Amino acid sequence: MPPEPPPTKAAFRTPALDPAGALFVALAAMLFATKGIFAKQLYALGVGYVALVAIRATLALPLFWAFALRRDGWAVIRSTPASAVAAAAAVGALCYYAGALLDFLALTMIDASIERVLIFSYPAMVVLFTALRDRQPPPRRVLAAAALTYLGIFFTMGGFDLTELRANLFGAVLVLGSALSYAVYFLVSEKYTRELGSPRFTLFAMTAAAACLIPHFIFTRDAAAELAAITPAAWLLLALISVLCMFLPALLQAEGVRRIGAQRGAVLSTVGPPTTVLLAWALLGERLGGWQWLGIALIVGGILALDLARAAGHAKRVDEPAA
Predict the structure, then answer these.
(1) Residue 2 counted as domain residue
(2) How many Cβ atoms are within 10 Å of 28's Cβ, its own excluded?
(3) In CA terms, which of 156, 179, 230, 311 is 20 to 30 Å from 86?
(4) Contact 54, 214 (CB under 8 A)
(5) Which own/partner pairs from 226-231 qualify as long-range (CB within 8 Å, at least 24 positions apart)?
(6) Burial, 27: exposed, middle or buried (Cβ in 10 Å; 0-12, 13-18, 19+)?
(7) What span, in angstroms and rounded, lies between the C-alpha atoms of 61 and 209?
C-alpha cells in the first residue's frame, strides 16, 4: 500500500474570512454592548437584577422558538441527538443563567463601561482553552498577548489607584466569572453550531437558561410584588433588552461563530467595549480615569495581538517544508 502523500502547504493555510460571518459577530458584539446601558436604566426604575435577567430570558424565549420552528421545523428539532441537546443546554445554563446573573449583579456595583471591557477577557480564555483542548502549548507570543490582556484588566479595575481598585474589585471578579462562562459557551458553540445550525443550538441553550432563571426568580424573590411594581416604561425597556440585547445578538453570534470560528469571532467582538464606552459617556455620563483608559487599550491590544499570534502560527506552518 503506497504511503500517504505529504500534506500540502494549502492544507495549513488559514481559511479566508467569511465577510457575512465577520459582520454577524461584530453586530452581535455591538448589540450586546448596549446591555449595560439598558440595565442601568432599568435599575434606576427599580427593577432588580434577578427580575431583569429572568424577564429578559422569558420574553426572548418565544422568539427563539418561533425562529427555530420557522427555519428547521418541529420534526428536525425533535430529531436532534440527545448529546447535542445536553451540550447546548449545559452551556446555555452556564452562560445565560449563572454567567448572566453574575454579570448583571456586577452592573449594580460598577460602571457599564468597565463591565463591558472586563467581559472581554474571554477571548484570551478562548485562545488558552483552545490550546489545552488541542494539547498544544501556547506559543510565547500567545502567552505574552494574554498577559497583556490581564494587565489591562488590572488597570481597568483602577490600577495603582487603590481607592478605585477596591471600589471595583468585587464587581470585577463577578464579571470575570461571567467571562469564563462566556468562553466555554463560545468553544462549545463552535463545534455544535456546525452540526445543528445556530438556531437550534441557541434554542436549546436559551430554553435551558430560562428553565433555570424562572424558578430562581420565583423562589429567591417576592416575584409577584416585583412584577407588580414594574412600570410601563420599564416593561418597554425590558422588551427592548430582550430583543436587541439577547435574541438578535445571540443568533447573530452563533451564526457568525459557525462561519468564522471561535478565535476569529472572539477577536472581532472587540468592537464591543468601545461601543459601550461611547454609549455610557453619551447616555449615562460615565467618565473613565487615566488608568482605566490604559487598561482598555491594553485589553484591546492584547486581543488583537492574540489574533496576530494565531495568524503567525498558521503562516509558520505554511512556510515549513512538507516532510
Answers:
(1) no
(2) 25
(3) 179
(4) yes
(5) 226/47, 226/48, 226/51, 227/51, 229/46, 230/45, 230/46, 230/47, 230/51, 231/45, 231/46
(6) middle
(7) 9
**Number of domains the chain is built from:** 1
pLDDT of 198 reads 76
Instruction: Examine residue 9 and state whether it is found in any structural domain, yes or no.
Output: no
56 lies in some domain: yes
Cell numbers of 145, please? Answer: 498577548
DSSP string, 189-241: HHHHHHHH-HHHHHHHHHHHHHHHHHHHHHHHS-HHHHHHT--HHHHHHHHHH
**Integer Cα distance of 312 and 309 in angstroms:** 5
Q: What residues make up the domain containing 310? A: 19-319
| Mean pLDDT score, 167-187 | 87
d(CA 178, CA 94): 9
Distance CA 125, CA 131 (A): 10
Cell of 137: 502549548
Please tell me the distance from the alpha carbon of residue 190 to that of residue 197, in angstroms, as a whole number: 10
More confident residue, 320 or 188: 188
